[in-house]
From TrEMBL, chains A, B:
Molecular function in Gene Ontology: DNA binding; DNA-binding transcription factor activity
BP GO annotations: negative regulation of DNA-templated transcription
Keyword Transit peptide: no
Location of the HTH gntR-type domain: 5-73
Listed InterPro entries: Bact_HTH_transcr_reg, Chorismate_lyase_/UTRA_dom_sf, Tscrpt_reg_HTH_GntR, UTRA, WH-like_DNA-bd_sf, WH_DNA-bd_sf
Naturally occurring in which organism (per UniProt): Herbidospora solisilvae
UniProt keyword annotations, A-Z: DNA-binding, Transcription, Transcription regulation
Designated name of the protein: UTRA domain-containing protein
Pfam families: GntR (PF00392), UTRA (PF07702)
DNA sequence: AGAGTAAAGTTGGAATCACAACTGATGGCC
DNA sequence: GGCCATCAGTTGTGATTCCAACTTTACTCT
């Protein structure tokens, strides 16, 4: 990192390093605002800012009159540690696939059939969507659905809308999330170096109690951070 | 909310409401620092703070010289919308049960046996742990494990440690997360009003490729928020 | 008209000062 | 010893001011 970084980031990064590396154990006191100004040679604004960022991340917790301490139960779970499990649904919040929607011809997939609760030899269609941000692929969604729902004319990516036309209503979503070091599978599409950690989201959409679509979403871990926040103010929670 | 709330929170809540309710569509400009000071009658600090909070939540994005705008793809996903899916592992990050650990006598549970990949009639022990924060139950974990690993003497809650004594090493965790409106099941323990949204985390601990423990974690949605952040600085990302 | 320039406005960062509410510890008093 | 009051320290919040870097707009000059 360049030394032209904001000064508060220097403080944040140093303290975060000490916490994540274990030098500062849970419960250990964090230097106070004034101590930080002296120790790092920064102003009060930068010190306050740094503490607030760390508190917002959930790494430390501040109590008025008592000071900041490393959290006993850090709610910030860096994804690369694989203790943080996370799923997101960019599809659901309106992220549009910028390109690369590939639908394979239907074939029998007994493993998927189990998730969809259909006959093992029932053909399913597989749709793979590569989401890109600034040209860089950031997410791969592999979606399966029973061929019976696919009339072949509608937009394959609009599962919910099309199913609505079939009189089905998506009422529930289930997910299966895990972190793993992938085999060289799918790395052709996402351009992942072998051995990198990813999140693998296994999702099933339900219409009533009937699974109608299931999908796999693969997200490289290094692109996101999961912050498990509590209602404002920042990180307020008794923690002892 | 009391009107003794911090001033900046008034601004945050008003703008957040306008965004989530759709009054401010994605791409719409947000009042600038100076406009906020005038419109809300607050100081510059409060205005800046409010904008930073919203940016940190991912609802808006600021660009130097150009101003703040509502994000095209908000990365803040309120859990109660069920578009945000989320899992956490309080167990793994050292959250201790404050009370209410109940272990039932072992019995056959074919549904759980499938998850554990054991014979359908193999008895499993069920442990239910109610986690409390300030006396209020905030989380229920229902854990199952094959009776063969349970010698009945060790702490039932320390699955990982005990399994280590059996020569097994937990190498992987899989999770299954879904939001649902629960039946009146478990509401006796968590005191959930019927119909409330919860997160249901279905988790399996693996030793190598062998599942050794599986559990259900139920968390009421109103207690948490998932923020899907990007690396610092706040919300920086070209978004157009 | 067109191109380049200047000005105004905006954000991110930062310093300094201030104050209310709270905590922990100290010390004095019974 | 035990109890209570005081006090220094800390956080959360807030105001004010300033600056660099950047964008947008308007204007001037050719």
């Amino acid at each position: 990192m360049a030394n032209s970084d904001p000064v508060y980031l220097r403080v944040v990064e140093d303290l975060r390093r000490q916490i994540t590396e274990g030098l500062l154990q849970p419960g250990a006191p964090i230097p106070s605002r004034h101590q930080i100004t002296r120790k790092y040679g920064v102003g009060e604004t930068a010190a306050r800012h740094a503490l607030r960022v760390l508190a917002q991340e959930g790494l430390i917790i501040g109590r008025v009159g008592s000071g900041h301490r490393v959290r006993q139960r850090p709610d910030l779970l860096p994804l690369h540690r694989a203790q943080a499990h996370f799923s997101t649904d960019m599809h659901a919040v309106g992220r549009r696939p910028t390109c690369d929607v590939k639908t394979d011809s239907a074939e029998a997939r007994p493993d998927i059939a189990v998730r969809l609760r259909i006959a093992a030899q029932s053909p399913v269609t597989r749709t793979r969507i590569v989401y890109r941000s600034d040209g860089k692929p950031v997410q791969l969604a592999v979606s399966y659905e029973p061929i019976v729902y696919n009339d072949g004319t509608d937009d394959i990516t609009q599962v919910a809308h099309r199913l609505g036309g079939n009189g089905l209503k998506l009422t529930e979503v289930t997910e299966h999330v895990y972190a793993r070091v992938p085999q060289p599978v799918e790395s052709d599409v996402l351009d992942l170096p072998a051995g990198v950690h990813v999140l693998h989201v296994e999702r099933t959409h339900w219409a009533g109690d009937k699974p109608v679509e299931t999908s796999d979403v693969i997200i490289p871990c290094d692109q996101f951070r999961l912050v498990y926040t509590l209602p404002a103010p920042y990180g307020e929670q008794t923690n002892r």
